[in-house]
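Changelog note: in this version the structure field was regenerated for every chain. One regenerated record is shown below for reference.
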Amino acid sequence: MNNTRTITYQQIAATVERLCIESCYELPGDVLEALRQAAAAERNPRARHILEQLLENAQIAAEKRIPLCQDTGLAVVFVSQGANVIFTPPAEEPEATLFDAINAGVAAGYEKGLLRKSVVAEPLNERKNTGTNTPAIIHHEIIGGDKLLISVMTKGGGCENKSQFRMFNPTENAETVCQWVVDVARQAGANACPPFVVGVGIGGNFEQSCLLSKKALLREMTDANPDEFYARLESQLLSQINALNLGPQGLGGDTTALAVKVETAPCHIASLPVAVNIECHAHRHKSAVL
């Protein structure tokens, strides 16, 4: 029995185009609800007013179909491809790949959505803008089944710049790791536009811990790590970061972070890699299943 499904270049490009625009215009519902709850609980009047302004900004952006923020980000695309999914290129470009389709969607979305294009072709010399906001950062994995899952995160530069990695000695304890994570949030400060969503990747190796920290940001705001130990760690880190009193936009208050998400992976006996990926209050991401 043949359970394979065909998904075309055109379907993928159109979906990514839509997700880029929607993510820049609309905050996800769980993020809006987290901001509402934070505003209701905030004891600092100035901080509460800023949170209310962020909610108003999100409402205006969604209604008027304009970007939430002038930095419409670098497109980070997570793709989970079912093992039974077959990608088919267009007849006029028979060698086009899945990645080509994604980049075509990003370019079209940023053009159609009038989104700022923020990608330079090379990092250290001329830094010339590509003019299309491509290439996207694409993370691809094969999973079971016949579906294609696409998540687009339009990641701003200000918060991304405050992310950090550290290789701990494997003998370090949870308290030491938590102290460092909290300090990364403190150093991020107003420059990363709090209140934050904080992704933490623990384990794997150098590059996997960083990927885990970014992938953690795709989780629902209200969920908890299924492992009881790490669920407690998430709650502890959120309390400690909010106790910094940085507050919205770094002007003081109870709400420095809306959520902390921890993802883990097995690692070498001699290693304890930890990465922190900071996300600003404009936590823009959208997903689709084909």
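Spot check on this record: The chain has eight helices and ten strands. The beta strands are 5-8, 74-82, 85-88, 137-143, 148-155, 164-168, 196-204, 257-267, 272-279, 285-289.
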